[in-house]
Model the fold of this input.
Amino acid sequence: AQSVTQLGSHVSVSEGALVLLRCNYSSSVPPYLFWYVQYPNQGLQLLLKYTSAATLVKGINGFEAEFKKSETSFHLTKPSAHMSDAAEYFCAVSLNSGNTPLVFGKGTRLSVIA
Amino acid sequence: GAVVSQHPSRVICKSGTSVKIECRSLDFQATTMFWYRQFPKQSLMLMATSNEGSKATYEQGVEKDKFLINHASLTLSTLTVTSAHPEDSSFYICSAPLGGGGGYTFGSGTRLTVV
Done:
């Protein structure tokens, strides 16, 4: 079975500072990994996904994540935080990027301080 | 892109009544739909998987008689919360796999409040 662990339920950064949201995965097979963002009372928006191609994945809104097999990690970063980045972020894993459901981490709430 | 339209976005119902939530795939055929529940400040937990033309598969601990899932066509999956109680108040989200490495698309969610 696969799972993800998000370290830190709440991360606070200053506007313009680096954003780093941590995600570690556990999977018996090569995983497909995703990062989603959720704004209050809304659905999920895909930021980026790793599907066994390039290990450095670039997503929307300036976010990127690097798949590190040796560390079983898929941390999300953004060089410079913007106020609009304040939201809940979920890391998720699936076995085959489509036919099986996503398994989500507990989420990390990102606060951006002016 | 592939869009799943979920309705209603929010609903308030009285305890003991039933509520139906619909998820429609607008520009693609969704043979599978995943239904998740999200309690406040918590993650999304898979409730069940529906497949067009067959019975839904429920996760352990989810009452199939209480959460009725129907996937009667390739573009519509519904979740009916029967005899709702305040503890059923939650955010319900549907998701369809896109296949071919395309990932998943999500509905915008339904905020259910049972009073």
Observations:
- The first strand of chain A starts at residue 3 and ends at 7.
